[in-house]
Amino acid sequence: QVQLVESGGGLVQAGGSLRLSCAASGSILSINAMGWYRQAPGKQRELVAVITKGGITNYVDSVKGRFTISRDNAKNTVYLQMNSLKPEDTAVYYCNSAPQRGSWGQGTQVTVSS
Fold first, then answer.
1. Cα–Cα distance list, 28 to 7, 17, 18, 31, 39 (Å)
2. What does the alpha-carbon distance between residue 41 and residue 51 come to, in Å, rounded to a whole number?
3. Is 19 exposed, middle or buried (0-12, 13-18, 19+ CB in 10 A)?
4. How far apart are CA 102 and CA 81, in angstroms?
5. What is the pLDDT along the chain (114 residues), one digit of tens a residue?
6. Are 27 and 18 a contacting pair, CB within 8 Å?
7. Alpha carbon separation from 65 to 21, 47, 62, 82 (Å, rounded)
8. d(Cα 28, Cα 35) in Å, to the nearest integer?
9. How many beta carbons lie within 10 A of that of residue 60, not counting itself?
10. How far apart are the first and last CA of the chain?
11. CA 70 to chain centroid
12. Considering only CA atoms, which of 60, 50, 44, 49 is closest in space to residue 92?
């Protein structure tokens, strides 16, 4: 089973940017779609961005125009570029296949201050 390690989170002011990375321990070529999920305190985990093997992307409405998901199959890595961050983006961010099948990694904390 492919293990996933997320990184790149941190504390940023509203309007700032962060780039998250998700490194897989094995090939992601066989995974049709990869996604970034987030879980805010007291809320359910939600899928916010998806990218297919062919590069087709989709986003939840709340991040459209601000977040960009990408994947580098050669590096077995998925990225999430987050711009114009808002306090409501504060959450722990995870990556996984979409729909989720594998186990969850430790996630990376994103905190956006107002």
1. 17, 26, 23, 5, 23
2. 25
3. middle
4. 23
5. 788 999 999 999 999 999 999 999 888 878 889 999 999 999 999 999 999 998 999 999 999 999 999 999 889 999 999 999 999 999 999 999 999 988 899 999 999 999
6. no
7. 19, 16, 9, 10
8. 12
9. 14
10. 39
11. 10
12. 44
Question: Rounded to whole angstroms, how far apart are CA atoms 50 and 96?
Answer: 10
* Token couple for 19: 């780039």
Buried b / exposed e along 63-74 (16+ C-beta atoms within 10 A): beeebbbebeee
Length of the chain: 114
